[in-house]
Design goal:
The structure holds 2 protein chains of 2 kinds. By secondary structure, chain A is α/β, with parallel strands linked by helices. Chain A has 18 helices and 22 strands. In chain A, strands 6-7-8-3-9-10 form a 6-stranded mixed sheet, sandwiched between helices. A 6-stranded mixed sheet of chain A has the order 16-19-20-13-21-22, with helices on both faces. A 4-stranded antiparallel sheet of chain A has the order 2-1-4-5, covered by helices on one side. The radius of gyration of chain A is 25 Å and the shape is globular. Chain B has 12 helices and no strands. Chain B is mostly helical. Classes of the chains: A alpha/beta, B mainly alpha.
Chain lengths: ~525, ~300
């Protein structure tokens, strides 16, 4: 139903799509797989009319088409669920769906008619949602349903989903996959974009792998390949998806959080009484869906957010409410999830960014001035040791790739030889090669005896790194489990707030039976 | 005797407050449309001044107050389009470009006045149109139903605005574009077209507001509006981007102004204090703003230009 021939798209300095061919059949789920910057999103934005290709042609049902803008795509029956939802938070579900459509009662709205059809479509495709609810009241999973309903309402026969599961719990993702299969049984085609290899294998009928703007592989039978095969195609070499890891040999507790309460940006409670302990020589992973208090927890420990109540003991010292400098001095280092906002200063050079936390250290000073030679030596050593790919020490970090900026931040924080390390989303948006390297360094840090707290929304990352896993939901720790006893299904239920003691047991049994 | 006098004073003050609220109400309603769609127009006062001069000059030359109002409206429309071009098409920083429009209106209206008129000459004002029946109710009739058509029109625009914003597709698009223009754009709502329309409405109403003010006073002078256009912008915040709230704010401002005027006329406020008393409405409005408006969230895309990526 869709065919792309030789699509080329250039941006200043980058060839984002370099002659891409792609095809989608009716009733098919065709996955587009690739690293960040491989050209997946660019290609889909071309199909949806957000970008114009520099060369190549698009065929819909065998006819050449020109897609200048999203409305052209919609008219051709193409719908897109964007990674960042295209919803107006202050409008209702029905208003969001009706937006841009011709009302049957012009110039007035016909929201009651729209609402009725939303309910119909919701029942048919397993997407229940209240048409009169205002978007900001809905959960992320419900919002995604609205996005899909928007496309179905416009009679999309071809649906593009850009990283749809990034914000979902595993169970919500399974529900989504059921919906998608219902849609393909109906003869609709789906283009699925993801980098979660497990899902890609479970869902796809066909996989096309992109690297550096080119098609580097096609998989017609996903059952015949492994995650490692896909990763190799994406990166171009063998990749270890999980770091080699000896069993942890934990020592005494180095970070103890007791009864911690922290407010979020809106002044409401984001962390509601958390107790947590991380021992030296172990990695504790915090698993959870985005927005359940992870960021506030990390920021409170790092001194960026003042807790309302509770203790944060580093060794025997309570650092709750201390300044970041005092917390650094206590031996805590923090890798922020906001890489370009808190982790690095984009316009500063590599050497300067490596110095950000330690600029007051006498090693780098001569009197009141900086000791340029010491700074340069420090930078040169870290860049080499942590394999940061950069043209030079005086290159502004904004010119580096995400993976290299993250390696730089990791280098800066680990070089301080901390006792406690907080790593928030350490590999989000980072290429597989850099992620592999960062994972290995975190494990190495653990083996050195550091207490490591890893916060991640990627359950695979938590399972690969953590020795113990704490699940966070609505500002509370639902439970802490040993990695050896951790079950993906049970963790998923806990991430949605289910307690293991109650419904969790049966669900765990069901999950076990399903394997 | 003294009771009757007191009553007369109150009636005059309230009727005067309603009259004084009209320019603010018109300009504020117009600004509400713009802001709900994400465009902050700080040039309202400049548009009002040019509308005021155009209206005044038309009446001076031709003698028809309604034609004067219409010419003010047209001038407002032209300046509204210019504002839309600057802030929507060019994507200018709205806080700065609005000040530019204001200074342009302030300077040009005075220049034209000096060149074309010179010494102030009074003009006809809007005739009062008592509403049959209602106007003969004691006290209430005098306060509410013995005004000019412009006053009735301005207050009728309040329910009309509420209806347009909440019940029509156009209104829904305005709200969408002011909150999340990317989302609106992605389903084919033209952000530029919606914002041009709302800024045009804002210009038309600001031009009308200016003309109404000049014709109501029957005079024009340099800086006639005395920053009422800025008060109108503030009233939109005060009114939490809702027509009813804007009306409340305009009435409050009009009433305080009217009462101060009364007190001055009656000699209760000494002459030497009159400058300080003149500040009262502005101060009260600002206080109310600080206390009231903080509880409401402004349109998320307010004052943010939307330019689609390549």
């Amino acid at each position: 139903m869709l065919e792309l021939r030789g699509i080329v798209k250039r941006f200043p300095g980058v060839l984002a799509n370099d002659g891409i061919d792609f095809e989608l059949l009716p009733g098919e789920i065709h996955t587009l797989l690739g690293e960040n910057g491989a050209g997946k999103s660019t290609l889909m934005k071309i199909v949806y009319g957000l970008y114009r290709p520099d060369a190549g042609e698009i065929l819909v049902d065998g006819t050449r088409v020109d897609i200048h803008r999203p409305t052209d795509a919609i008219e051709l029956g193409i719908g897109m669920v964007h990674q960042h939802f295209m919803l107006v938070d202050t409008l209702t579900v029905a208003e969001n769906v009706a937006m841009g459509l011709r009302s049957s009662r012009r110039p007035l709205t016909d929201l009651d008619v729209v609402a009725e059809r939303i309910v119909e479509l919701g029942e048919r495709f397993g997407l229940p949602v209240d048409p009169h609810a205002v978007i900001w009241q809905l959960s992320v999973g419900q919002r995604q349903r609205v996005e899909i309903l928007k496309a179905l309402y416009r009679d999309a026969r071809l649906l593009i989903l850009d990283e749809p599961t990034a914000v979902l719990t595993p169970q919500e993702a399974d529900q989504l996959f059921d919906t998608l299969r219902t849609m393909t049984e109906d003869g609709r085609g789906i283009i699925f974009i993801s980098h979660k290899l497990r899902e890609v294998l479970a869902l796809s009928d066909r996989i096309t792998v992109l690297r550096h703007g080119k098609v580097v592989g096609e998989v017609d039978d996903p059952t015949a390949v492994t995650r490692e095969d896909l990763a190799r195609m994406m990166v171009g070499r063998d990749v270890k998806l999980a770091p080699d890891k000896a069993p942890a040999r934990p020592g005494p507790a180095r970070l103890r959080v007791r009864g911690l309460r922290v407010h979020g940006d809106r002044g409401t409670e984001a962390v509601s009484g958390i107790d947590l302990e991380v021992r030296g020589g172990e990695i504790v992973g915090i698993a959870g869906v985005s927005g359940n208090g992870q960021r506030e927890l990390a920021e409170a420990i790092a001194g960026l957010r003042r807790p309302v109540a509770g203790e944060i003991l580093v060794g025997e010292v309570d650092v709750a409410g201390s300044s970041p400098a005092e917390i650094h001095a206590a031996g805590v280092r923090y890798i922020s999830e906001a890489r370009m906002r808190e982790g690095a200063i984009p316009g500063f050079t590599v050497a300067e960014n490596l110095l950000l936390v330690d600029h007051g250290d006498p090693r780098f000073r001569r009197g009141v001035l900086f000791d340029d030679r010491a700074i340069e030596e420090h930078g040169r050593r870290l860049v080499a040791e942590y394999r940061v790919k950069t043209p030079g020490l005086d290159t502004p970090v904004e010119h580096l790739s995400g993976g290299n900026i993250q390696k730089l931040i990791v280098a800066r924080e680990l070089s301080a030889r901390p006792d406690v390390l907080i790593a928030a989303q350490p590999t989000r948006g980072v290429d597989i090669g850099a992620a592999e390297y960062i994972h290995a360094r975190l494990v190495e840090e653990r083996d050195r005896g550091t207490a490591v707290l890893v916060i991640s929304e990627d359950l695979d990352e938590i399972l690969a790194l953590a020795d113990r896993i704490a699940v966070i939901y609505e500002g509370r720790i639902v439970d802490v489990v040993d990695r050896a006893e951790a079950d993906r299904e049970v963790l998923g239920l806990m991430m949605a707030g289910g307690h293991p003691g109650s419904g969790g047991e049966t669900a765990a049994a069901a999950g076990g039976a399903a394997r | 005797m003294s009771d009757l006098l007191d009553q007369a004073i109150v009636v005059t003050a309230i009727a005067g407050g309603i009259r004084l609220a009209v320019p603010l109400l018109l300009a504020g309603l117009g600004e509400t449309f713009g802001q709900r769609s994400g465009v902050l127009n700080l040039g309202v006062d400049g548009i009002m001044l040019l509308g005021a001069f155009a209206g005044y000059y038309t009446v001076l030359q031709i003698g028809n107050v309604w034609l004067g109002l219409a010419v003010g409206l047209v001038v407002g429309a032209v300046l509204g389009l210019a504002t839309a071009f600057i802030s929507v098409t060019l994507g200018a920083e709205q806080g700065i470009s609005g000040i530019g429009v204001y200074l342009f209106g302030l300077g040009l209206s005075d220049l034209l006045f000096q060149k074309l008129v010179g010494t102030p000459r009074p003009i006809d004002s809007f005739p009062r149109v008592p509403i049959p029946g209602l106007s003969s109710i004691p006290v209430v009739g005098e306060m509410f139903f013995r005004h000019s058509l412009v006053v009735y029109l301005a207050f009728l625009l309040v329910p009309a605005s509420i209806f347009v914003i909440n019940r029509t597709t156009f209104g829904m698009n305005i709200r969408a574009v002011g909150e999340n223009p990317e989302a609106a754009d992605s389903v084919g709502v033209s952000v530029a077209r919606v914002r041009y329309a709302t800024v045009l409405i804002g210009g038309v109403l600001a031009g009308m507001a200016g003309a109404a003010l000049a014709i109501d006073l029957g005079i024009f002078q340099q800086n006639l509006t005395n920053a009422q256009g800025f008060i109108a912008v503030a009233l939109v915040y005060f009114g939490a981007w809702r027509p009813l709230g804007v009306m409340g704010g305009a009435l409050l401002y009009g009433l305080v102004n009217s009462v101060v005027l009364q007190l001055k006329t009656l000699g209760i406020i000494p002459r030497s204090w009159s400058d300080i008393a003149a500040m009262a409405p502005a101060v009260i409005t600002i206080l109310a703003l600080v206390l009231v408006a903080r509880r409401f969230r402004q349109p998320a895309a307010l004052a943010k230009p939307f330019l689609r990526e390549a």
